[in-house]
Automatic annotation (TrEMBL):
Domain of life: Bacteria
Domain HTH-like: 2-37
Organism: Streptomyces syringium
Protein name: Transposase InsO family protein
PANTHER family linked: TRANSPOSASE INSF FOR INSERTION SEQUENCE IS3B-RELATED, TRANSPOSASE INSO FOR INSERTION SEQUENCE ELEMENT IS911B-RELATED
A Pfam match: HTH_21
Amino acid sequence: MRRVHAELRGFGHTVNRKRVERLMRLHRIEGRHLRRRKRTTVPDRLAPPAPDLVQRAFTAGQLNEKWCGDITYVQVGGSWLYLA
């Protein structure tokens, strides 16, 4: 709705934002909500790959034999939190 209103004003039409909203709702026109993707990892192409120390075998024969971890990015409010 805001883009349509801005476009109409850019073409020189004097129109109220609420009128644009009402007419769009009347004709069942909805705007697309595009989200920007957050790039969280920038790979270093020159760095050697990390060695696979467990050779893709993730089962362990006893406790504390193998450990692994992961990081998840969570958007909270306007900032990103990292959950490990």
